[in-house]
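Today's session is about reading a structure prediction critically. Students often jump straight to the picture, but the first step is always the sequence itself: look for stretches that repeat, for charged clusters, for runs of hydrophobic residues. Only then move on to the predicted structure, which in these notes is written as discrete structure tokens rather than atom positions. Here is the chain we will use throughout the hour.
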Amino acid sequence: MHDFCFTIPYGLVIVIGGVIGYLRKGSVASLGGGVGTGLVLIFAGYLSLKAFSKGKNSFLGLAIETGKTLLVLFFACFLACFCSKTDAFLGWYCSLS
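Below is the predicted structure for this chain, in token form.
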């Protein structure tokens, strides 16, 4: 499987999730984060698809996908540290995982 086989559909799911979050709760952060991140992933997948159709590799697409993954990992670790220091249910859940 090639990376664009997952990146483009995943980007669409992220965009749809951001729109649904906005429509259900009115969250502008959900809209901006979901649509922004989703469009970046779709763009990276598009670059990869175009390079694949020419028989080449898209290093820019791969760099964008990798950068987005590292950014999500950073925020997930930050959230886990933040949650573990609170007394909320979410903190309890994060400390278990």
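Discussion point for the tutorial: The chain has one domain: 4-96.
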